[in-house]
Design goal:
Blueprint: E1 2-4, E2 7-9, H1 36-51, E3 57-69, E4 72-83, E5 92-98, E6 107-110, E7 119-123, E8 127-135, E9 142-148
Antiparallel strand pairs: 1-2, 3-4, 4-7, 5-6, 5-8, 8-9
């Protein structure tokens, strides 16, 4: 991240290595005994994540102060579909977003893959957004959710 006179720039966080060497192991000083069952379950989940790119799909968002309306701060909110594996997005047909019931149109469909199925809206408060992600080759959607937090503007 860079902060300067023109604002700030966010870049991708560095990826942790899949097979860390001895000098890359994170030692946070905590030691706990974990049963082999939990370790094996985590390995199975990791293996599935690697073999199925759809497991990497997630909702991401950003917010920015928009204006004051009726005495409330309103923020521009952009929610889109992200994933650690780029080919996962190519399998998506459409996304149906479910916003908080206080929105004028709380159910919205987006089919524009070129913009990562982005939904742009304005809000004055935080809420949980849900989404049904429909794929080209499946009838049942993948269900995702994300808590939309808003960083308050500086006075």
């Amino acid at each position: 991240m860079e902060v300067g006179p023109r604002g700030f720039v966010l870049e991708s966080a560095p990826r942790l290595p899949d097979d860390p060497g001895p000098d890359e192991i994170i030692d946070d000083g905590e030691t706990t005994e974990i049963s082999t069952e939990f370790v094996e379950r985590e390995k199975a989940i990791k293996k599935k994540d690697v073999t199925d790119p759809l497991e990497s799909l997630q909702l991401v968002h950003r917010t920015k102060f928009l204006r004051v309306k009726n005495g409330r701060d309103y923020y521009r909110i952009v929610v889109s579909l992200g994933g650690a594996v780029p080919e996962a997005l190519s399998k998506v047909k459409r996304v149906i977003y479910y916003l908080h019931h206080t929105f004028k149109n709380p159910v919205r469909q987006v089919e524009d893959a070129s913009k990562k199925f982005s939904l742009k809206t304005a809000a004055w408060g935080e809420f949980t957004i849900r989404a049904d992600v429909y794929l080209n080759d499946r009838a049942e959607p993948i269900r995702l959710s994300r808590y939309i937090n808003i960083e308050p503007r500086e006075a």
